[in-house]
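Bit of a strange request maybe. I'm writing a small parser for structure token strings and I need a real example to test against, not something I typed by hand. Could someone generate the tokens for this chain?
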Amino acid sequence: MTPETPVVPGRQVGATGPGGTEAGFDMRLVIGILALVAGAVALGIGTALAPALTALIAAAGVVVIGLLIAGTRVSRVFLVLLAVMLVGYAFLGRGFAYLGIAPLYLGELALPVALLALLRGRQPGRFGPIHLLLLAFVAWGALQTIPYLAIHGIDALRDGVTWGYAAYALVVSLILSSDHLRMGTAIYRRLIPIFLVWVPVAAVASQVVALPATPGSDVPILVFKGGDVGVHLAGIAAFVFLGLYAQGRGWRAAEPVLWALWLVAVGVAGVLNRGGLVAASTAAAAVLYVRAAGRALTMVFVALVLIVPLILIDPRIEIGLQREISVGQMLDNLTSLVSEGDDPGLEGTERFRVRWWTTIVDYTIGGPYFWTGKGYGVNLADDDGFQVTEDGSLRAPHNGHIEILARSGVPGVLLWMALNAAYGFSLLRAAARARSRGAMTWVRLLGFAFIYWLAALVNASFDPYLQGPQGGIWFWTMVGVGLASIRMSDRQESIDEA
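Reply from user aminoacidic:
Good idea to test on real output. This should exercise your parser:
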């Protein structure tokens, strides 16, 4: 009998060409050619309809293919990209967030890279209970978004970033290693003095200087928001107070100088935004992790040296807003948090918000939208009857937690509360375990993540902080850092050189 001809996978056999050579073909090659043809047709149609967006998608496709070839190194690429994004969001705010071509901006374009890093990169972490809560929150948000895509289009996706950016927490928590964390802490340490000097400069420049717009948009390249800055100032204060700044190598600014710069920055952010003032104050919770009496006394001394002359002189700086930078404005913002103040603008905003929040509670907890909310995509200001802008630019109440209730219903907000409660409790427990072993660097890092998380939640109560990449990506990234820190601390990995 004639022996059977061996069959090569993916190749047709039996036909021969000239000279007796096999005239087969590779199915993978055929599929690749068909994919290229389909891609070329799609690019042609897209170029005719939306050339700029098509070019951006094509460029992103090339990058994705390159990252697939890179293999496990994609994790490093993603973390470098993420670090650049976080620095840009912190320094330039919403202006940096508009890099890209609508509707795909940098925060969205980085998501495929994040997912590739998760699939192709080395994964030192495993899923835990908090990851399951995170996925449940994302799944419920998706269920309240997908049905509205046909109705509201891109607005549904834009509102859905509240849960969509949680992908950053998932990826960071699973791929971050102690070496990554060590390097990130060193970079953060070096940027602290620069950021503290930048805050008052940015606050004034964003109001009195005609800044150019971000390419492809009408948004200035620098947008200063006191609430966003307040979150970063809380993280910086915790970093210094917990001793992470002092334990680094190389040149460091003297801590009294840092505290002086920090107090000036807090004053500027607090004057412009009450949420920023309260968010920055959450740094006091760092005492839950490390009781550094010496650093606390240094901060108090510097505060007295700065504040007493300011109260006596009471300088007033007009920056083109209804609010001026002054001690009086700071006091008005402080008193408006606990009682009725003298500024009718502050009180009017508070009454407006409370009425709107009450309406949302009525139609969800006590009304027809209990289970699903109104979904992601609908303009809540229009639908609820609280629109105050001529162009309809107000879309939701300035409270991220209330917006989740309005859009995801009671189950959605309960998942949100459970996720945050479990995360905060896990950070406290992990720090207690690390302290019992004498691993104080891990205690400090866990405390740093806790303060950033707490400050972000506080600011989200005054502002749509989680609904923009400059806030949402920072928040979810730090959640991922916290989860990775818990994992590495419990494994007793070395981090002392951070």
